[in-house]
Write a structure and sequence with these properties.
This protein is of the alpha/beta class. It is built from eleven helices and eight strands. An eight-stranded parallel barrel has the order 1-2-3-4-5-6-7-8, surrounded by six helices. α1 runs parallel beside α11 (about 240-250) and α5 packs across α7 (about 140-150). It starts with 7 loop residues before the first strand and ends with a helix. The structure holds phosphoenolpyruvate. Phosphoenolpyruvate (PEP) binds next to β8.
Length: about 250
């Protein structure tokens, strides 16, 4: 994962999908020439991280995780630490996805603690933020994103190992996406929040991804929005052909 210069990033989140047989999708992805000037990442379920890394070792495709614990080791049955993920060769971890905030009651404070743990282990922390439909309809989007950012992205994080993903909850898996000006408004607010937190220079190096129903047919227009440095892709990342099309759209943007 490139630091310093703001390389674009196409990241796939397989969620709780995929069996060993589905690693064939990675073969297909990794065999197609990946554009060298952008970063490409797949975050398969934890069960597939090790074989995925073994399988893609010779390619530029990076492998990441979808969550980690805030502690590096201990009596936490069923959990996985950032150190363990790094030990496998993972380079990044998605944190604070809305499905974890909602389904597992993850608070901003917990997401921040996990992000510290991830960075301490050398992983890039991909922190997700996003409003619900009710919050957007109430006109509270920027306030909600601002509060999530204040709580989940403390100034003690290292901006060199940080990616933010704006993922409106109502756009995830729904086929709906915000208008391009709505995406631009949130990304610009996030860039300003990062500048206030880390200084303008460091804030400029943090990739801001858009996530929520990115597909081959809408990727190019989303990637044309100012301050969109790539995408976090759920459903369309499960299919190598669809994800490749999104990667190519990002490379051309
Ligand atoms: C996600 O869950 O991170 C996501 C963006 O999902 P989808 O692309 O399926 O909307």
């Amino acid at each position: 994962m490139g630091a310093g210069m703001r390389r674009k990033l196409a990241a796939g989140n397989w969620k709780m999908n995929g069996l060993l047989a589905d690693l064939a999708q990675l073969d297909q992805l990794a065999k197609a020439p990946l554009p060298p000037h952008i970063d490409t990442l797949i975050c398969p379920p934890a069960t597939l991280i090790h074989p995925a890394i073994a399988q893609t070792r010779a390619s530029a495709l990076a492998i990441g995780a979808q969550d980690c614990h805030a502690q590096s080791a201990g009596a936490f049955t069923g959990d996985i630490s950032a150190l363990q993920l790094r030990d496998l060769g993972a380079s990044a971890v998605i944190l604070g996805h809305s499905e974890r905030r909602e389904g597992h009651g993850e608070s901003d404070q917990l997401v921040a603690a996990k992000a510290h743990a991830a960075q301490a282990a050398g992983l890039c922390a991909i922190i997700c933020l996003g409003e619900t439909l009710a919050q957007r309809q109430a006109g509270d989007t920027l306030q909600v994103i601002g509060a999530q950012c204040a709580g989940s992205v403390p100034a003690t994080l290292d901006p060199a190992l940080l990616v933010l993903a704006y993922e409106p909850v109502w756009a995830i898996g729904s086929g709906l996406i915000p208008t391009l000006p709505q995406i631009a408004e949130v990304h610009s607010a996030l860039r300003a929040a990062l500048a206030a937190r880390f200084g303008a220079e460091a804030a400029h190096t943090v990739r801001l991804l858009y996530g929520g129903s990115v597909k081959p047919d809408n990727a190019a227009e989303v990637f044309g929005v100012a301050d969109v440095d790539g995408a976090l892709v759920g459903g369309a990342s499960l299919n190598a052909q669809d994800f490749s099309a999104i990667v190519q759209a990002l490379a051309a943007a």
